[in-house]
Amino acid sequence: MSANVYDILKERGFIAQSSDEDDVRRMLDGDSITYYIGYDSSATSLHAGSLVPIMAMMHLQRAGHRPIAIVGGGTTMVGDPSGRTEMRKMLTEEAIRSNGREIHAQLDCYLHFDGKDSLALDNADWLLPLNYVRFLREIGRHFSVNRMLAAEAYKQRLEKGLSFIEFNYQLLQAYDYLYLFQNYGCTLQMGGDDQWGNILAGVDLIRRVEGAKAEALTFPLLTTASGAKMGKTATGAVWLDADLLSPYEFYQYWVNCDDRDVGRFLRLFTFLPMDKIERLESLEGSDIRQAKQVLAYEATSITHGEKEAKDVQAAAKAAFSSDKDKTKENIEAMPTTVISLARLVKGVSPMEIFAEVGLASSRGEARRLIKQGGLYVNDQRVDSLEDILNEDDLTPDGILLRAGKKKYHRLIVE
């Protein structure tokens, strides 16, 4: 008998809160249900922090349940105040629609939308045509302002000011759930734990309008062991889009994770069986790198495909190996930046170029790394702040930059 997918999610650390644990577990143990998660359309790509809800959707899909991925073409025009200290930047409708198409294409790589057993929808399709006065009469009357103001998302914003347009957000998200319940039989909404109040508002709206029971489930908002927000680094977001962050850099993000995060990340971001995860997380000392390499390979394979994962794994191995192992294919898989020959002939400060390609967060950090002996050009340590890169540093494969022991980047000249 296969395990209940709710128990799988719980064992792997996905569940923060559920509206009724027994009912949600029973629901997921029966016939196929329809569930949904909404994604903001404020950027062209999701980032590694978005992988928690994506992986949860994939677990449910593997268990035979039907996913609906919503992009917020309508709600993004309002802006979710949850977890924000100030109002979100207002985007044009065209930009929001364009972002939504990009995100749906990205989600398709994980959920494989077919229009029947896996659906991709945009809430602009039903929110934008709404008649505002009719919406207030039919939907707004079910909401208590006192209860909304007591919600953590709104309480945090009241001190700095909460705009009226943001105050409408919860109504729109709740209406999404009602609409999906009425039109697609959706009975479970999932999301980050900062969405708990919004999701419960939808559960309550379905009860009030339809006299029916729907459920809610949220995931923990992850931070790394060092306290950083999941999917963020000193040099920026860990994007899922290969054009914004190369598969090699994505792989390196996981390889370079804190030792304390390895077991938790293996549970959340891979489909490896628990007994294997437990063996990997039990490794100690330098052996823990084996677990990180498995994590990096599995996470990269899920997001960028098995071929890319193999290529970047080989490239990463070559970066730490002797020259004979640095094949042309492995070197070309490394993240690469083009620099003009004229600029190189004039000479470039390592502090400038290491900050420019993202191996250091700033020139100041690059300066500090040089003083600590942590910057390398073609595997030769940069010993002086006065050192300059020029055309003499060019090799047939370009110029190989390294920060510390693990972060590589290649310069090529055109």
If you had to describe this structure to a student in words, what would you say it looks like?
This protein is of the alpha/beta class and 414 residues long. It folds into three domains: 5-219, 3-Layer(aba) Sandwich (Rossmann fold); 246-330, Tyrosyl-Transfer RNA Synthetase (Orthogonal Bundle); 336-413, Structural Genomics Hypothetical 15.5 Kd Protein In mrcA-pckA Intergenic Region, Chain A. 46% of the residues lie in helices and 13% in strands. The protein contains 20 helices and 13 strands. The chain has helices at 5-12, 21-29, 51-62, 93-111, 124-127, 132-138, 145-150, 152-158, 164-167, 169-184, 196-210, 247-255, 262-269, 274-281, 288-304, 306-319, 328-332, 341-346, 350-356, 363-371, and strands at residues 17-18, 34-39, 66-71, 119-122, 186-192, 215-219, 232-233, 236-237, 336-339, 375-377, 380-381, 399-403, 407-413. The strands form three sheets. It has a six-stranded mixed sheet, with helices on both faces. Helix 13 (262-269) runs parallel beside helix 15. The longest helix has 19 residues, at 93-111. The protein starts with a helix and ends with a strand.
Arithmetic mean pLDDT? 87
Oligomer state of the chains in this structure:
single chain
Task: Estimate percent helicity.
Answer: 40-55%
At CATH's second level, what is the architecture of the largest domain?
A: 3-Layer(aba) Sandwich
Helix count equals 20
Brief digest:
The chain is α/β, with parallel strands linked by helices and 414 residues long. The chain has helices at residues 5-12, 21-29, 51-62, 93-111, 124-127, 132-138, 145-150, 152-158, 164-167, 169-184, 196-210, 247-255, 262-269, 274-281, 288-304, 306-319, 328-332, 341-346, 350-356, 363-371, and strands at 17-18, 34-39, 66-71, 119-122, 186-192, 215-219, 232-233, 236-237, 336-339, 375-377, 380-381, 399-403, 407-413.
